[in-house]
Amino acid sequence: MLQVIVTGVLLGGLYAIIGVGMSLVFGIMRLTNLAHGDLMILGTYITMILMKGMGIPIWASAILSIVAMLVVGFVIQNFLVNRVLDKGDEPALLVTFGVSIFLSNLLLKIFGADNQSIVNPLAKMNVLSTEALSISAMYLFSFVVGVIVIVGLHYVLEKTNFGRSIRATSNDTMAAELMGVNTRRAYVYAMVIALGIAALAGTLIGSTFVFYPSSGTQYLIIAFGVVVIGGMGSVIGTLAGGIVLGVSQLLGGYIFGSGVQMLIAYLVLLIILALRPNGLFASATRK
Amino acid sequence: MKDQVMLEVKNLDVAYHDFEAVHDISLSIKQGSVVSIIGANGAGKSTIMKTIVGINKPKKGSVQFMGQDITGTRTSKIVSMGLTMSPEGSHTFEKMTIRDNLLMGAFLAKSNRERMEQLEKIYHLFPILKEKQNQLASFLSGGQRQMLAIGRAIMAEPKMLLLDEVSLGLAPVIIKDIYAKIKEINEQGLTLLLVEQDVTRSLKHSDYAYVVLEGRIVMEGKSAELDINEVNDAYFGMNKFA
After folding, report:
1. pLDDT exceeds 50 at position A286
2. Chain A residue numbers touching B96 (CB-CB < 8 A)
3. pLDDT tens digit string along A200-254?
């Protein structure tokens, strides 16, 4: 039981970092990025190909993958999403759906449908290994990275002039523009940050689980759960959302069998939504 | 310097889809003056204001600010040139604190020190905002929210400020208070363009006034010289100009 809860919390940290970029994008432009999972898996594949194909060490590959995804974020926001944003909500949503289909098929074409993995030395190590409790180094590492990224992002949003402008844009776009914020550019920054974090999450996922070109959908659903539980658009809430989802998944699996663990996790999501429709944390939403 | 034209609007046409909201609007606003646009609800006043700051794009005509053509320029760019607006309904950032709202006003300031100096000035002008600085804007009353919106707009030290319906829905005593502050701000050298529904108040607080009816200017003149009865008639479309 203790083992299950501890592992669930650690897994929650990984889930949180999967969801936080989606939350940021939703918060600022009311856009559910349906390509979030696929973009993250793209980050995973970039790390993998740099390691396997070019022999670059994992940490450097992870950094290069982040850099590549920053560029992808700029391209997607600047040349695709920004062009359709003032035509209502649906066109932008469809654009992200299109990106999602394109990416999963592109990965399938290049890498085939086989399972892949990233070889990470942490995956084979335990930081604690006793009868009652063992803690995987990889899970602990993911959790720590998740907490650092989310707390760091929260700090930037709350305390810096740049962060204020992002919050202002998500609160009232017209008023933010009247403060001198180029809100279109603020959207680009948000997407770039979101995908940079997604690339990092992608490397962590690839080091923890096997992945294949259509893995994105599975992580999109996790990200969606995290964002909804945490409160749409709340960055710090994603940490709570991730932990709730991780713990309920593993606890559900422990009690009812691993076949239904995701079902249990989403049942918890539905219960939380029924009790607190806005999620656990109030978010910076637009009026 | 005083008689220099700061804002020049020429033959402005603005349409929403195929509905023409304002037609052939020309305004000229001198540096340091207070000019008001008077008109009934739906006359097109807010459309004119929004078009000047680039939120709406004009179909025809031009807007010049300090000799530069700003027609169709992005709002954030216009704001960076020193022309800003406090929009109708205040549009404060509800989910942010009073202090963060004000700091956002100085988003374009070069340094945090500059921001803090401006913040102190605004707190001096509106002490109530300092008192409540750590509360969310959504907790403010209508009048306080209007003060916050004005304070936020002048955080950036603009050269000219557009004020859209600052008195809407407020109690008379609060309106008086706000107009006293507006006068104070103008005396410090800020050029103002006001939009009002109240004729008497508009004429009392401005140097020059335009009366708008159904998207057209039907009367204009120095506020002190305009006859209030004639303005009232023009306002409702009952005189020879309409």
Report:
1. no
2. 164, 167-168, 171, 284
3. 999 999 999 999 999 999 999 999 999 988 887 788 899 999 999 999 999 998 9
Strand order, beta sheet including B216-222: B83-86, B160-164, B191-196, B34-39, B208-213, B216-222
Residue in A164, A169, A178, A234 to test binding to B, most B beta-carbons within 10 Å: A178
A164 vs B80, B84, B103: nearest CB: B103
**Which pTM was predicted?**
0.90
The alpha carbons of chain B give a radius of gyration, in whole angstroms, of: 18
What is the spatial distance between Cα A19 and Cα A228, in angstroms, rounded to a whole number? 10
Distance from CA of A257 to the nearest CA of B (A): 43
Say yes or no to pLDDT of A285 above 50: no
And the tokens for A272?
């939380």
Q: Is the Cβ pair A164, B95 closer than 8 Å? A: no
Of B213, B238, B189, nearest to B4 (Cα)? B189
With beta carbons under 8 A apart, name residues in chain B contacting A181. Answer: 76, 104, 107
CA distance B162 to B150: 10
Q: How many CA atoms lie within 13 A of B181 on its CB side?
A: 26
In tens, the pLDDT along B63-74 reads 999 999 999 899
> Do the chains contact at B85 and A178, CB–CB below 8 Å?
yes
Q: Are B83 and A273 in contact (CB under 8 A)?
A: no
Q: Residue B103: which residues within 8 A CB-CB, separation 6 or more?
A: A161, A164, B115, B119, B155
Q: Which pairs count as long-range contacts for B187-191, CB under 8 Å and 24+ apart, including other chains?
A: B189/B32, B190/B154, B190/B158, B190/B159, B190/B160, B190/B161, B191/B6, B191/B7, B191/B29, B191/B30, B191/B31, B191/B32, B191/B33, B191/B34, B191/B159, B191/B160, B191/B161
CB pairs under 8 A between A and B: 75
Q: Fill in the amino acid letter for B4.
A: Q
Number of residues in chain B: 242
Question: What ipTM did this prediction achieve?
Answer: 0.92
Kindly report the nearest CA distance between residue A157 and chain B, in angstroms. Answer: 11
CB of B200 within 8 Å of a chain A CB? The answer is no
pLDDT tens per residue across span A36-88: 999 999 999 999 999 999 999 999 999 999 999 999 999 999 999 999 988 88
Taking CB atoms and an 8 Å limit, are A161 and B107 in contact across chains?
yes
Contact criterion met (CB < 8 Å) for A178 and B75: yes
Long-range CB contacts (within 8 A, 24+) of B119-123: B119/B155, B122/B151, B122/B154, B122/B155
Beginning with the edge strand found earlier in the chain, give each strand of the sheet holding B68-69 in spatial order. Answer: B19-30, B5-16, B60-65, B68-69
User: Which residues does residue A128 pair with via DSSP β-bridges, in sequence order?
Assistant: A135
From the CA atom positions of chain A, what is the Rg in Å? 19
Instruction: Inspect the interface and report whether the beta carbons of A179 and B152 lie closer than 8 Å.
Output: yes
Q: With an 8 Å Cβ cutoff, are B93 and A161 in contact?
A: no
What is the structure's pLDDT at A35? 97
CA atoms within 13 A on the CB side of B203: 19
